[in-house]
Specification:
about 375 residues, alpha/beta, eight-stranded mixed beta sheet, five-stranded parallel beta sheet, 9 helices, about 25% strand, globular
Amino acid sequence: MIDSSPFDYYENINILPFTSLLGWGESNSIHTGGPVWPNWDANYTVRHCRKGRPVDSKPDIAFFADSEFLTLEDVAYWCGPISSHFGHMISEFISRAVQYNRCGGKFVFGAPYDSGMDTLDKTPKFFRDIVRWLNIPEEEVLIANRPVLSKKLFCAPQAEQLNYDVEPPAYYLDILKRLQESQLGQVNESGDCYYVSRAAMGAKIAGEGYLEDVLGASGVKVIRPEAISLFEQLRIYSSSSKIIFSEGSALHAMQLLGSSGAKVYILNRRPGSRIAEAALSARCSSLKYFDIGRLIHGKFMMSGRPAPHLGITYVPSREILSCFNNIGVELSGWSSSDFEFYAKNDIFSWFEGESSSPRAKILDHCK
């Protein structure tokens, strides 16, 4: 169980903009920026961890030697970095901020030094929606896109970590339940079944647009989460009886809820993945993953490493039918030949897109 001790407290802490975030930036670290904590090597509670181990590097104050520091006299709370990636923002960067509910003071978020995010209105819309969901006063948000000296800084433990096999602590889920009730009021189970689609994305299940049409005709409600507000997504996830996700970042929105009575099914675009398994298991009534099809993917431009999250997944028609039969959804009017036609078109379009991308210059890309 992740530690539920009171917040750590420090005085006169330098908070630096991020020079590296999610592996992109000036250093090779996954994560470089934020507070320069004392006793760095042993101070796991306040550092950024994945699977129980720190993955960050000590911020380099020399990088900002010529910068003017903002002195923050107010009581402040370190929240974490702002990421433009929806899934990572929720799954690994927001859990400290959740715990400051009912606290007064400045809520400090870090930003990449070259991002231009110096005010809340310049952050991603989904981030602003998260701030509102957490009831954080917008006027009390401070974005550290320049060096800050915080005179009085609190830091909560990281209650959730990326793909950690440990469920979040009960006290943390209780906070989220209170927020959920505050924002949505009394929510009754609708009995509806929803499919959360990636059909508009490049990385998806081949033929997913056809699957959307058949599901809609079969009584399943289909949403494309990028087209609706975060609040509406959370209302749906709070009230549905069944939710079927095409595996991807959208499912992390459920980590803003304390509980859901839904049965959750995840169609793995990347077979073998168990994305957010412990986090979702703690919130929903049941959880099941389906490893389907074959993933086709290329490589990253910068490193040459495989890039499965950018790939497209081909699933034979019989596997689609078997999967939805297992879930208890009959695909009315399903045509295997029509599905194969649309799937092949999607794969052709994906290859066209890859061949015109900078990644195509990598040796053996998509071979």
